[in-house]
Write a structure and sequence with these properties.
The complex is a heterodimer of chains A (114) and B (107).
Chain A: E1 3-7, E2 11-12, E3 18-25, E4 33-39, E5 46-52, E6 57-59, E7 67-72, E8 77-82, E9 91-97, E10 103-104, E11 108-112
Parallel strand pairs in A: 2-11
Antiparallel strand pairs in A: 1-3, 3-8, 4-5, 4-9, 5-6, 7-8, 9-10, 9-11
Chain B: E1 4-7, E2 10-13, E3 19-25, E4 33-38, E5 45-49, E6 53-54, E7 62-67, E8 70-75, E9 85-90, E10 97-98, E11 102-106
Parallel strand pairs in B: 2-11
Antiparallel strand pairs in B: 1-3, 3-8, 4-5, 4-9, 5-6, 7-8, 9-10, 9-11
Classes of the chains: A mainly beta (114), B mainly beta (107).
Amino acid sequence: QVQLQESGPGLVKPSETLSLTCTVSGDSMSSYYWSWIRQPPGKGLEWIGSIYYSGSTSYNPSLKSRVTISVDTSKNQFSLRLTSVTAADTAMYYCARDSPEPYWGQGTLVTVSS
Amino acid sequence: EIVLTQSPATLSLSPGERATLSCRASQSVSSYLAWFQQKPGQAPRPLLYTTSKRATGIPARFSGSGSGTDFTLTISSLEPEDFAVYYCQQRSNWPWTFGQGTKVEIK
């Protein structure tokens, strides 16, 4: 069974860069889309962006200028970088495999605070 | 961007009752609609994908239907563990989007 695990700092200072990694186990990364989703405390889900195993990406237009998603299939990992963070970026961040059947990680809380 | 509108916002039902949740898209998403369940303090759990295919381990009381712009998640007989928030997501057009959620609460 596919398992995904998010990792990265739980606290980021305002204006700095948020960096998270998702490690995939139980399956190859080939032929799938891999995504990042976030959820601010008490709010709904927001799709951040996705990357195909080959490296092509799509991003949420509201975040596009600040987001980069990359993939390293040799390590079975994909990563999220979000620059110039503010308190509004405080959220649970989830990684997921989207196609065909979705699999999600357990999430990691990132707080933006000085 | 495709907007997904879920209704109702809150559904108050008793265990054993049938739950019917709606997700309406602002334009056609074909059959590329998924449903997720989220309980407090937990990650969203995939329930259905491609409208009606149950994810691994999901019981048969969960079913999905629809196509184009109108979709329904049905829970045939609510179990105590089914009281949660449910989200729909479209993966037809970029950017992928989620609905705002429907809370199923105990009446």
